[in-house]
Amino acid sequence: MKRWLIQNGLFVTLASERPTYEGWLSVEGDRIAGMGEGAAPAHEAEAAEEIVDGKGLLFLPGLINTHGHAAMSLLRGLADDLALQDWLENHMWPTEAKFAGDDVYWGTSLAAAEMILSGTTTFVDMYDHMGRVAEVVEQAGLRASLTRGVIGLCPPEVQTAKLNDAVQFARDWHGKADGRIRAMMSPHAPYTCPPDYIERIVAAAHELGLPLHTHMSESAAEVAQNVRDYGTRPVAHLDSLGFFSRPSLVAHAVHLNDEEIALLAERGVAVSHNPVSNLKLASGVARAPDLLRAGVTVSLGTDSAASNNNLDLFEEIRLAALLHKGVSGDPTAVPAAEALRMGTLYGARAIGLEGVTGELRPGLKADLTAVSIAKPHFVPRTDYVSHLVYAANGADVAHVWVDGKQLLRGRELLTLDAERIRFEAQRCFERLRG
Amino acid sequence: MKRWLIQNGLFVTLASERPTYEGWLSVEGDRIAGMGEGAAPAHEAEAAEEIVDGKGLLFLPGLINTHGHAAMSLLRGLADDLALQDWLENHMWPTEAKFAGDDVYWGTSLAAAEMILSGTTTFVDMYDHMGRVAEVVEQAGLRASLTRGVIGLCPPEVQTAKLNDAVQFARDWHGKADGRIRAMMSPHAPYTCPPDYIERIVAAAHELGLPLHTHMSESAAEVAQNVRDYGTRPVAHLDSLGFFSRPSLVAHAVHLNDEEIALLAERGVAVSHNPVSNLKLASGVARAPDLLRAGVTVSLGTDSAASNNNLDLFEEIRLAALLHKGVSGDPTAVPAAEALRMGTLYGARAIGLEGVTGELRPGLKADLTAVSIAKPHFVPRTDYVSHLVYAANGADVAHVWVDGKQLLRGRELLTLDAERIRFEAQRCFERLRG
C-alpha cells in the first residue's frame, strides 16, 4: 500500500479547542495513517513514497453533498424563476422523460467534474438509469450513496418494474468500486407514491439492509395535499408506513411543525437541508436551527443544477450560516463551524458513513480537499474556519483525494476528461431539446 | 488613442429581445467604439492595434459595488456570528480607532485586488483617511465614488474638523484619476449624527454639488431609536433634514414601511441592497422586490469584508435573485436579468453614472469584465444570463478592463502587486491587534 505525507499544511479538525493546526498528515493506502502539529516525525518522512508540500494550502475533510440528481446538470439554465410544480411538470419532467442511459451518463459526468472541482468527495444521487451513474462514480473515483428514485403514479405492473429495477441496482452495485458505492432505496416523495407502494419499498429496504431516502415537505402545497389525501402531515404519514424504521434521510423538510421536528429527532431521521434550491423554487426556509437544537442530523445538499444552478457545496455551507441569522434575527444561529460540520461530519452521519469519512482523523478514509489560501480573500490570517465558510468558494479548491487517490491536482481533473464531458453534455442537451 | 477589438466573444447586453449575442466589440481610448453580431467589419479589424480573441469568454459590463468600507478587509474573520451593535461597538470600532493612513492604504489595496479579481470595476467607499483610498483607486485603475463618512457623536470642534476633512477630500479628489474618482458627502448614519450636523453636511453637499450617501434603517433597533429620539422613522427624519434634496444613495434600508418606500421613490433616492451583510449581522431581509416595484433604483453592495466576508459581487447578485423568492414565496421575484441589472446598470444609476458605465453600449466607458465559460458549470449553453447569476462566481473572471485599460489578464493583476499587498495587509493586521 502506498504511503505518502503532507508537510507544512494547515489542517481543519473543527475540534473546539483547536479548530485548525499547522503540521502534517500521512496516508497509507486508502486511509489517514497519522496526523500531528509541526514537522512530521522522522519515521513518517522515511516511510513516505511521496511528500506533498502543503504550504499555502488548507486541508479539510472532503465535502459531502447529501441530496441531488446529478444527471439534471444537463438541464441547467433551461427554466428559471418558476414555481416548483410548474417547473417540474412543464419543464423538467417532459425533458427528463426523454433521458436515455447516455444522457444520464454524460449529465452525471458533468456533475462529477463540477463536484470534484469544488471539493466534494461524497454525494447522494437519486435518479434513473442508476447503473450508468454508478459507472461514472467508479471512473471518477468519487464516493456516493446512489438510489433509484421511483415515482408510483403509474399502473401496478410499472410500479413493480420500477421497484425491481431499484432492487436490482442495489444488488448489482452496493459495496462496489472498492466499497465507495453504497445503495439506498427511494420512493420519490409521499405525493408521488401511493402508501402501499411506499410500504413495499420499505419492505425491500429491510430485506436488503439498506437506508431510505426521499423528498419530504418541500413545499407548503405538498403538505396540504398530504393532509387532504391521507389525513396526516408527511412526517406522521411516512412514520405510519414504517419509513423511519430504517435509517432514513429526508430531503428538504422545509415545512415542519414542532411535533414533526420532535418525531424526526426521536426516530433518528437525518435531514438534507438544501437552502439554495429551496430559495430558488420559492419553497421557503427550512427550520435548520430548530432541527439542530432538537438533535436532528442536518446535512447539506445542492439538489440538482436545474434548481441551484451549480453544485458548489461551499455555497450551501455559506448560505446555511447566513440565511438563518437573517431570517431569525439571531446572529448566533448556525455559527461558521456548525455550518462546516453540516457540509462534512453531519453529511457522513446522514448517510451512515460517520467514522468512515467527513473528518480528518487517523483511521478514516483519506478523503481530502485542499484549498489554496494564497489569495486576497483569505487575508488576514484570523480564523480559517470563518474564511472557509464566509469567504471561500469552490474555485479555491486546488487538490482533491478520495480513498487516498488524487482526483484533482492543481485544478486539473485526473480521472475525468473535462473537455470531452462538456462536449458530450452539450450534444445530449441538444438532442433532448431538438 | 489606442484602438483595439474583441472578436468571437459572447456579449451580455441584457436587452430583452437579445440578452446576449455572439460578435465583436471595439474600444477607442477609454470608450466602447462599436459593437455588432458576427464577424467584425473589415474597417474595425484594420483600425485595431490589438485583437483579443473572445472565444470561450462572456463579456459583461464591469460590476458596480455600491456600498462598502474597503479598508475593513483588514478585519475579515476577526469577529463573526455577533449582533450588529456588539460587533460594531466591541470589535470593529475599537480596532478601527487604531487605523492609521497606512492601514487604510493596505486594507484598501487588499480590497481592490479582491474586487478586480472578482470582476468589479466601480465601487463606493465610505471611510476615513480617504486620500489614501483615492491613491489606491488611482494606482489600481478602478473607478470609485469615495466619501469620508463622519460620525457626529463628538464635541462640536471635532464635528467641524471631520466635516472640513470631508470637504477637503472632495475638493482634492473629485474628478481626479482621469475622472474615475468622484466624491460624495456622508453622515455615517442618522443614529450617529445629530440632526444639525446632518444639516451642515447636506449644506456642504449643495455647495460642492455632490451626492449624499449614508447608512439607513439597517436594524430594527436603529429605527426604534430614531422614533424614540426624534419622533419619526429614519426616512421622514432624513427628509425633514433636507437629505433627499441632493441625489442620494442609502445603504441597507432593511426596515421600511410602505409610506417610506413611496417617499424614497418620490424623492428619487437609490437604495444599496446588501443582502449578505444583512443576513450575517441578522439585520433582516430588505424589501427589494417592493422597492423595485415602486420604481426605486436598487443596486447591490457587499458592505465590508468584516460582515460578508468577501467582496465577490456575484454572490450579492445571486443572493438578490434567490433570497426574495424564498422569503416571499414568489418564484418570479427578482428574475435573473433583474439581479444582473442591480449589479451593473442600476449600480451606475445609483451613483449618477448611468450613460457612463454599467452597460455595454457604444459611447460608454470601456469598463468590461470577461468571464471564462469553458467550465462544467457553464454547460449546457442554455441561458448565459441565468448562468452568470445562478452558477458563476468571481473566480470565473478572467480579464477586467476599466476606461479601456486592462487591470486583470488571465487572473493576473496588472496594476497591483498581489503578493506585497497580502504581506503588508497581514503586517498591518498584526500591528493593529498587537
Automatic annotation (TrEMBL), chains A, B:
The organism's place on the tree of life at top rank: Bacteria
UniProt binding sites for Zn(2+): H67, H69, H215, D303
Cofactor binding mode and count: Binds 1 zinc ion per subunit.
Keyword terms: Hydrolase, Metal-binding, Zinc
First and last residue of the signal peptide: none
Reactions accelerated catalytically: S-adenosyl-L-homocysteine + H2O + H(+) = S-inosyl-L-homocysteine + NH4(+); S-methyl-5'-thioadenosine + H2O + H(+) = S-methyl-5'-thioinosine + NH4(+)
Pfam family, one: Amidohydro_1
EC nos: 3.5.4.28, 3.5.4.31
Any GO MF annotation of the entry: metal ion binding
SUPFAM superfamilies named in the record: Composite domain of metallo-dependent hydrolases, Metallo-dependent hydrolases
Binding residue positions for substrate: E96, R148, H188, E218, D303
Enzyme class at the top of the EC tree: hydrolase
Gene3D superfamilies in UniProt: Metal-dependent hydrolases, Urease, subunit C, domain 1
Domain called Amidohydrolase-related: residue spans: 60-406
Cofactor: Zn(2+)
UniProt family annotation: Belongs to the metallo-dependent hydrolases superfamily. MTA/SAH deaminase family.
Chain's role: Catalyzes the deamination of 5-methylthioadenosine and S-adenosyl-L-homocysteine into 5-methylthioinosine and S-inosyl-L-homocysteine, respectively. Is also able to deaminate adenosine.
Protein known as: 5-methylthioadenosine/S-adenosylhomocysteine deaminase
Organism the protein comes from: Cohnella nanjingensis
Lineage: Bacteria, Bacillati, Bacillota, Bacilli, Bacillales
Name of the coding gene: mtaD
